[in-house]
Each structure stands twice: as C-alpha cells, then as structure tokens.
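re: that chain from earlier
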Amino acid sequence: MVVQLIADETQELLEVVNHNVRSQQYVCAGHVRSLHVMSQILDRFSTLSPQHSTQSSTGFLRQLVHLETIAAQIHSNSVALQRGKATIPLQGIEVPFHSRREYDGLPPSLTP
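^ sequence. v structure.
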C-alpha cells in the first residue's frame, strides 16, 4: 500500500520487485526520488508507537506521502539514497530485470 501511494503521488516508478521474506523483507525498484520518499516515510513510521502506527489512517498516510514528495521535489535530483531504519539502498543497480518497466524487453519465458 505504501509503495503504491508513493508511486501514485510522485508519478514515478516505484514497485516491489522481489518478496524476499513476505511481510518482512522486500526489494523495491524505482526512481531515486520515489525511493527517497519511501525511505523517509518508513523512517517516520518506525518512530511511531505500535498502537499509533496500526491506527494510522490511509488519509494520514496520503498526507504524509504528499508532504514528503514536495520536500523531495525541492531537492530535485540531488537526493542521495542513504541507509534508513527500514531501507538499505543497493548501489550500482539501475532497474532490476524483474521490474514491470523491463517486461517488454524480456523473452516470454522470463516474465511473471
């Protein structure tokens, strides 16, 4: 849900491309600005109490995504991804082959 909200708000690529450990560990691919927004959102959620974070409404999350997107746009393309509380950037990987963005260039046997 968070990934899709960010992708919708930024209008840039952001998607889960690998479910390493379902509900615990994922790999996401996307535009640097969208990945930065995701990292900021997840860092904020990590500081909330468990009760507060589970009670957070979709409206609250949308507002947070909107504000973080505006902040990221101010920095333009100068955003440098850094390790967050819930994110670890993988340096040197542009768009993994299993991103939906790359499906058209893959043989049918490799697409999901």
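The chain is about 40% helix and 10% strand.
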